[in-house]
Amino acid sequence: MLKYAKQWVPSIVIAVVISLFVRTYVAEAMKVPTGSMIPTIQINDRLIVEKMLWMTTLEHGDIVVFNPPVAGDEGKRYVKRLIGLPGDTIEIKDGKLYRNDEVIDEPYLQEKMNYTFGPITVPADHYFFLGDNRNISYDAHLWDTPFVDKDKLIGKVVLEFSNPF
């Protein structure tokens, strides 16, 4: 028995260390707990989140996982669409999103937004996020601080698949 343990223990330890490294610094699987991204992402869908943000350029429309700037939600993770990059001016009026005074086409939305917001300008090293299910999403238009510091970003969603059960 001891002979088998000596053969397998190093392999198991190496596998655990590699797994922890990948999950912490490279990519992570996660499950979506809310409907704030419906219809794009459904409740209980699975995501693969690429965490190597230093090697990635975030762009408008990316779906990103981050720690929210919301008191009481420390330790939680939010999944939202990137709407505003540093320097962008964001406004919501008449059911439409304006970025830098241009109407943004958002074919992934099921319904028009039923609120107004802004205009606000995204500060340096910060981002502005909204859920796709805008009228029920707890996102930047409702937060006391509508911007997410770049240090709170966890990763970019690179793969989404439905829960088979």
Whole-number mean pLDDT: 85
DSSP summary: helix tally: 1
Tell me, briefly, the overall form.
elongated
Radius of gyration: 19 Å
**Can you summarize the main beta sheet?**
7 strands, antiparallel
Flag low-confidence runs.
none
Helix content: 10-25%
Q: Topology as H/E string?
A: HEEEEEEEEEEE
- Tell me the strand percentage band: 25-35%
- Structural class of the secondary structure composition? alpha+beta
- Give a count of the beta strands, DSSP E runs of length 2 or more: 11
First CA to last CA: what distance? 40 Å
- Trace the largest sheet across and list its strands: 1-2-11-3-4-9-10
Would you give an account of this structure?
With 165 residues, the chain is of the alpha+beta class. It has one helix spanning 2-26; strands at residues 27-31, 46-50, 63-66, 78-84, 89-93, 96-99, 102-103, 117-121, 126-130, 148-149, 153-161. 24% of the residues are buried. The protein is built from one helix and eleven strands; from the N terminus they run H-E-E-E-E-E-E-E-E-E-E-E. The radius of gyration is 19 Å and the shape is elongated. The mean pLDDT is 85.
Map the helices and strands.
Elements: H1 2-26, E1 27-31, E2 46-50, E3 63-66, E4 78-84, E5 89-93, E6 96-99, E7 102-103, E8 117-121, E9 126-130, E10 148-149, E11 153-161
Which terms would index this structure?
165 residues; alpha+beta; seven-stranded antiparallel β-sheet; 32% strand
